[in-house]
Amino acid sequence: MGSFSLMHWMVVLVLVLLLFGAGKLPSVMGDLAKGVKSFKAGLKDEDDTPPKVLH
Question: For the segment 21-42, what is each residue's pLDDT rounded down to a tens digit?
Fold first, then answer.
């Protein structure tokens, strides 16, 4: 139950292609990449702020 084999990834790829179609897949992946970049930028901005000290 550890890692996925090559056959598992092939099944996932076929299911993704069936759900989204080959033409729509690049736009879906582009949107996913933009979301990941925004998330990482949000985390980075959050780390730059100094912690608030309560007295």
Answer: 878 878 888 998 999 999 888 8
Quote the pTM value.
Answer: 0.48
First to last CA, the chain: 49
Q: Quick check: 25 and 16 in contact, CB under 8 A?
A: yes
The answer to whether 26 and 16 are in contact (CB under 8 A) is no
d(CA 55, CA 32): 42
CA dihedral 5, 8, 9, 13 (to 10 degrees): 170
